[in-house]
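**Fold in tokens:**
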Amino acid sequence: DVRLVESGGGSVQPGGSLRLSCAGNGFNLRGAWMYWVRQGPGKEFEWVARISPDDIKDYSQSVKGRFTISRDNAKNMVYLQMSSLRIEDTAMYYCVKGQSRGQGTQVTVSS
């Protein structure tokens, strides 16, 4: 079964933190551009962060300074560390490689 599998979502209060994980089951994530995207309720998909094969990182303005993308090639994993979460960060978060996307993990930020 070749797929991307996200995990780590949950419900947190504003200001909280979560770490999302993306596992490449049958996918070799090494050497690939990897992306995190999200879709909030009633919203379009939004690119959040990306990481190059040589670890160059880039973020959308809405999360810059609060989120950190990283990868562990030995574990074939990509992560998204999210801090100082805001209500507007509430969304389904997806890991993306090329044309492939996982099933998503829900992040809910509410007081």
